[in-house]
């Protein structure tokens, strides 16, 4: 069974090492971890690079049986948008979806911290300077993310990891792999290549 | 034909007025705009509110023929994560997808502004203080978003709107509705209810 390993670690200089470490955890549970990879550079290609990258990643997702998404907050109160897109994509295909975050603080508290003194009361809740409500569901990100994980039969693993290890600690990730192995063992592969 | 109207305007106090305005534009093009709505409050429900909200929005998406996503940057360099999840979801279902943003600055420039003086060189590009690369595809957000729109046969409409009108100006939205009407006229509905 193949698991798509979504997350913003692709932006780190040593992402190949992180990919290998994640794939080793998957292998220990009998799973094949598919880390998103860019297609080879092709300066003369008819399509721009970003279209070729997108097509490759979409094909990799379709070829996987499930997704584990690193939803650790990225440059703001929420997860990396590329990872969130991929989570929505895999949920729509009906594939099991698992997520993790290495920041334990809830979405509401993180959003309030980002808004700072500009926060204003709205009824029993809060809004920002633009009048946008702060979600108050006591979740770890926008409700669509945890809602999607829940609907997909998955879970969100949460750990508080020191900032310097936030993008490399695999404790919560490993809990997702365990959960994925349990769920996938009980069902046939959804992709013909597996 | 029914169009799912995704965007963070749901967080505004006057979102009902914005929904009505968007639906009027859709109606002028012969389309039915479906604005995400929360299910009625049910304090005694077996499931928590966020699960019920998620289920309703997912059902609304499945009942639509296409999506128009408001990808205007929300509380950071990227779009609202709920909207991004929905875009990925609809793309995976093979439905036409359109997006718009009322901020013309590119993702790279917005990300660099958010990083500020902590930005460091990495090769010919830039990375943040955590060593995370700044995407350099000259797009308006993470490449998965524009890649998904492109693969779905849609487009991204971009306008620069003054900050005070950013969540209410419907110029770029209207261009998406025009494009959606053109695309949908050429194909049968993908949902049985339409």
Automatic annotation (TrEMBL), chains A, B:
Q: Which InterPro entries match?
A: 2'-dNMP_N-hydrolase (IPR051239), Nucleoside_deoxyribTrfase (IPR007710)
Q: What SUPFAM superfamilies does this protein map onto?
A: N-(deoxy)ribosyltransferase-like
Q: Name one Pfam family in it.
A: Nuc_deoxyrib_tr
MF terms (GO), sorted A to Z: 5-hydroxymethyl-dUMP N-hydrolase activity
Gene3D superfamilies, from UniProt?
A: 3.40.50.450
What is a biological process (GO) this protein takes part in? deoxyribonucleoside monophosphate catabolic process
Q: Which domain of life is it from?
A: Bacteria
Identify the PANTHER family for this entry. 2'-DEOXYNUCLEOSIDE 5'-PHOSPHATE N-HYDROLASE 1
User: Could you tell me what this protein is called?
Assistant: Nucleoside 2-deoxyribosyltransferase
Q: Please name the source species.
A: Siccirubricoccus deserti
């Amino acid at each position: 069974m193949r698991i798509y390993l979504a997350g913003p670690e692709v932006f780190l200089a040593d992402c190949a090492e992180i990919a290998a470490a994640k794939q080793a955890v998957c292998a220990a549970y009998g799973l094949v971890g598919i880390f998103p990879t860019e297609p080879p550079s092709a300066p003369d290609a008819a399509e721009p690079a970003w279209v070729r990258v997108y097509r490759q990643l979409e094909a990799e997702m379709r070829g996987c049986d499930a997704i584990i998404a690193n939803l650790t907050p990225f440059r703001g109160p929420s997860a990396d948008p590329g990872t969130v897109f991929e989570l929505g994509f895999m949920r729509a295909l009906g594939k099991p979806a698992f997520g993790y975050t290495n920041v334990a603080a809830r979405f509401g508290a993180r959003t309030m911290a980002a808004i700072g003194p500009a926060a204003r009361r709205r009824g029993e809740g809060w809004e920002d300077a633009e009048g946008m409500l702060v979600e108050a569901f006591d979740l770890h990100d926008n409700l669509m993310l945890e809602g999607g994980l829940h609907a997909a039969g998955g879970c969100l693993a949460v750990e508080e990891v020191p900032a310097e290890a936030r993008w490399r600690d695999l404790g919560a990730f490993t809990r997702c792999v365990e959960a994925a192995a349990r769920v996938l063992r009980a069902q046939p592969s959804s992709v013909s290549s597996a």
